[in-house]
Design goal:
Elements: H1 8-13, E1 18-19, H2 24-31, H3 43-46, H4 48-61, E2 65-67, H5 75-78, H6 89-104, E3 110-115, H7 119-122, H8 127-143, E4 148-154, H9 157-168, E5 174-178, H10 191-201, E6 205-208, H11 214-222, H12 250-262, E7 267-268, H13 276-285, H14 287-290, H15 313-316, H16 321-325, H17 363-379
Parallel strand pairs: 1-7, 2-3, 3-4, 4-5, 5-6
Helix pairs in contact: 4-6, 4-13, 6-8, 8-9, 9-10, 12-13
């Protein structure tokens, strides 16, 4: 750790609330720097200024963790399904570490190196082959001396265990997050059993991230209750280009932060769809517990108090907590349903459709997938 800064375990053991960052992949896709589909982070090399700026916005919003933008930065993902970048995984990972450290040094933030699930695992590659992929990223994280490590966005606990085992060998603290709901991983391993296995593999922090709404994530971490599609938002027909009506408000984030805190969760952050204002809402909700407001709150009156300065009287009347705490936002789309039917194809590791390849997806393969989609919809 940088001089004077406490590490992640030291902070959590002291009862502090650590706030993570948000969703770089979705945020930068909407800004035009990440391609939906491969979702790879070459922007760390091609457009470092935008990655740096997003880190800085999360820092100002209250984040204590600058996670390296290394999601899907493994070589097998960078070469998957016709993608041919002239940038190596090592270049991307090194640039990501440098950017995260640069911004972390501007405030009270730690740098976390992150790895995630791989195409190789879905293609049934061996444990040795998959661990070699994680090892290559880990070598960069050690070279750049990140403060701790995160294994995130894993659908299969077995692959998450392999990642944790590899990361643990570094001697640095390891957090592990799975993108699962109350029904467990893609092979039906319950959330509780996943947590036990990750701790045994060497994780000191375990949790849930992505694919499900905050309420479901908290429920999954606490009591495993509920009944959801196994893959959450990825199964929604709106994924990924029509999810905007589902984006949560800053007031939803207040509720999420409070429920997470009440459940005993002390490392709270966000993933896909989380913008800096969502992270700021978490920091503002927990201002009493954390005893600090983020810099970005200078431009945001608590519970809408800034609206007292509005020119319109009916808007000034909304400058109060009880108004925003009980708001039920309308979509403004009268012909849209409130819910949609998930496309649960029921495929996972070992199924032919999930075998990955370097070659681009062919028109014949697309035709086959359309037939599968039609079948899935008819049986939904």
């Amino acid at each position: 750790m940088a001089s004077g800064k406490k590490g992640i375990i030291e902070r959590l053991n002291a009862g502090e609330v650590v706030i993570g960052n948000g969703g770089f992949v979705f945020a930068l896709e909407k800004r035009g720097y990440v391609k939906a589909g491969p979702w790879t982070p070459e922007a760390t090399v091609t457009h470092p200024e935008v990655v740096r700026q997003l880190h800085r916005e999360f820092l100002r919003a209250g984040s204590n963790v600058m996670q390296t933008f290394t999601f899907y930065a493994s070589d097998d993902k960078l070469e998957n399904r016709g993608q041919s970048l002239k940038i190596s995984g090592t270049q991307i990972n090194e640039a990501a570490c440098d950017l995260a450290r640069e911004v972390a040094s501007e405030g009270d933030a730690m740098v976390a190196g992150g790895v995630c699930q791989t195409p190789s695992y879905l293609s049934c590659k061996s444990e040795i082959e998959v661990k070699a992929i994680f090892k290559k990223q880990l070598e960069v994280f050690l070279k750049k001396n990140v403060d701790f490590l995160i294994a995130e966005y894993f659908e299969h606990v077995e692959e998450a265990e392999w990642a944790v085992q590899m990361l643990k060998a570094s001697g640095k603290p390891v957090a592990a997050c799975m993108c699962i709901g109350p029904d467990g991983d893609m092979h039906g391993v319950s959330p509780g059993e996943c947590a036990v296995r990750l701790v045994k593999a060497g994780a000191q922090i375990v949790g849930i991230n992505c694919d499900f709404d905050p309420e479901t994530c908290v429920k999954t971490e606490v009591d495993e209750g509920g009944n959801c599609s196994c893959q959450g938002l990825i199964d929604l027909p709106e994924f990924p280009f029509a999810l905007e009506p589902r984006i949560l408000t800053r007031w939803d984030m207040h509720a999420y932060a409070r429920e997470a805190y009440k459940a005993g969760i002390r490392f709270i952050g966000g993933c896909c769809g989380f913008e800096p204002y969502h992270i700021r809402a978490i920091a503002e909700e927990l201002v009493t517990e954390r005893r600090i407001l983020p810099s970005a709150s200078e431009k945001h009156g608590m519970w809408g108090s800034g609206l007292e300065m509005h020119t319109k009287p009916w808007v000034r009347a909304r400058a109060r907590r009880d108004y925003w705490e009980h708001i039920t936002p309308a979509s403004g789309r009268p012909k849209c349903p409130s819910l949609s039917t998930p496309e649960g194809w029921g495929v996972t590791k070992g199924h032919a459709e999930l075998m990955q390849q370097k070659e681009a997806t062919s028109s014949q393969e697309i035709k086959h997938l359309m037939e599968m989609q039609k079948k899935a919809k008819s049986s939904a």
